[in-house]
Amino acid sequence: MSVVSADIEPLTFVFDDDGLVPNSPLPFLVYKGAVDVANDHPEKTIEGLFGANGWGAMWRNGVYDYVHYHATVHEVLGVARGRARVRFGGNSGKELEITPGDVAILPAGTGHQCVFASPDFCVVGAYPPGPKMQITRPTPENHAKALKTIPEVKLPKTDPVRGEDGPLVRLWRSGPR
Asked: What are the start and end residues of every segment in region (Disordered) (predicted)?
């Protein structure tokens, strides 16, 4: 049995640069209920999926409770347990409830901040091959640097949920870069 619904399409959002959080012209993607995590090892299920699709440097934890972004790498977050309300896109972005099996894919520069999490909330984070993740806080100086680094971030070759032919590949390749 597959851990992913083969025909699932992600929700897409594009967040504007707010002057402190650069966000991205590429769409932020959210797969709702994409991964079957109804088992005794949901973290391993998500890690196996992301790894099989070429995304690595994985970690398990939550989402920081302050606004931050990554200016040198794209990020995927897969919810293994619990639930959270996360604001994506910085202070003027959108709050979304994320629950087990949901996957959020953040193009470089996308602001994110946890505003609420259940005590058992756990996400698996991963990155496509490339530079290591760095946490960037929204300051005028960091924003100016990010505007130079974000356009240099390579597009991933695969969608972390659906692989080489997944929606991310199609949506991001047809985007502004």
From this structure: 156-177
37 contacts 101 by C-beta, under 8 angstroms: yes
Q: Are 105 and 10 in contact (CB under 8 A)?
A: yes
Tokens linked to 92: 């003027």
Q: Using an 8 Å Cβ cutoff, are 160 and 55 in contact? A: yes
Burial call 54-72: b when 16+ CB within 10 Å, e when fewer: bbebbeeebbeeebbbbbb
Distance in angstroms (rounded) separating the CA atoms of residues 60 and 22: 26
Residue with tokens 């640069």: 17
The mean per-residue pLDDT over the stretch 5-33 comes to: 93
- Rounded Cα–Cα distance for residues 141 and 139 (Å): 5
- Which domains can be identified in the chain, with CATH numbers? 11-163 (2.60.120.10)
Question: 114: helix, coil or strand?
Answer: strand
What would the two tokens of residue 19 be? 């002057």
How many C-beta atoms surround the C-beta of residue 75 within 10 A?
Answer: 21
